Amino acid sequence: MITLDQIVREGADILREKAVEVSIPPTDEDKENLEKMIMYLKNSQDEELADKYNLRAGVGLAAPQVGISKRMIAVHFTDDRDREYSYGLFNPKIVSHSVEKTYLPNGEGCLSVDRDVPGIVPRYARITVKATLLDGSEKKLRLKGYAAIVFQHEIDHLNGVMFYDYIDEENPMNPPTDATPLEDL
Questions:
Q1: Reported pTM
Q2: Residue 83: helix, strand or coil by DSSP?
Q3: Where do the domains of the chain lie?
Q4: Which residues are identified as catalytic?
Q5: Would you put residue 82 in left (φ > 0), alpha (ψ -120 to 50) or beta?
Q6: What residues have CB less than 8 Å from 160, skipping those under 6 apart?
Q7: How far is 130 from 140, CA to CA, in rounded Å?
Q8: Strand 126-133's sheet: what is its strand order?
Q9: pLDDT tens for residues 120-149?
Q10: 55-78 tens-digit pLDDT
Q11: CA-CA distance, 63 to 28, in Å (whole number)?
Q12: What is the CATH T-level fold of the domain 4-184, as seen in this structure?
């Protein structure tokens, strides 16, 4: 079981590296690691387990955040329309995106960042992601709104990019003119 102590914190070199592709079919070790990442997210959202094991709630986790420089992400959350997204993905890739951008008005957070980083993080409002699932099958996901934001945040980790890299240092809370707040989409 992954605990908060095993989450790599900002400043670690691995969070700034480009992660390597996972060979397909994935090894048993890669599958096991990805399953543990999903389980962390599920456990972190269970109040009783989160208290018992001192877990900080998360909706997404990338392999570099647990010290593995491979292209694997896990997500587990429900969007505002009660659609559940619970995936372990190998080699996720954004294959298309909208011109339109959006952002979370209260900014983003990250399990690897122990401090509050205020600021607007512009993201594409809609994306299409292709990846390989735990069972080895190919998956194409068309995502919009909150789901698109979560997936972009996690895929960025695979490329050594942190969410705060997008924040305008001079005007952190000033939204870009080409972006719409998530609740107005």
A1: 0.96
A2: coil
A3: 4-184
A4: 154
A5: left
A6: 15, 16, 17, 18, 19, 64
A7: 4
A8: 60-62, 72-78, 84-97, 126-133, 138-144
A9: 999 999 999 999 999 999 999 999 999 999
A10: 999 999 999 999 999 999 999 999
A11: 15
A12: Peptide Deformylase (3.90.45)
